[in-house]
Write a structure and sequence with these properties.
The chain has 4 helices and 2 strands; from the N terminus they run ααββαα. A two-stranded antiparallel ribbon has the order 1-2. It is mainly alpha-helical and 66 residues long. This is DUF3046 family protein. It comes from Rugosimonospora africana.
């Protein structure tokens, strides 16, 4: 998954303003206790980060973009 696709999906799920906040502030256990931004900055693959988002917010992520 390309980084632009990742951000498009995150924006679709949370809205542009809130997606940025979620990425910066929410620590996800699935990412080893890191935020989305920290995981991406550390070189984690976007597909791994996206799967962590889906696992953390299953009720928010539509089936069509999982």
């Amino acid at each position: 998954m390309r980084l632009t696709d990742f951000w498009a999906r995150l924006n679709q799920v949370f809205g542009p303003g809130y997606a940025t906040s979620v990425a910066a502030d929410q620590v996800l256990p699935q990412l080893g206790g890191r935020t989305i931004q920290q995981a991406l900055a550390a070189g984690e693959e976007t597909v791994v980060v996206w799967r962590a988002v889906v696992a953390a917010y299953p009720e928010r992520v539509p089936q069509s973009i999982r």
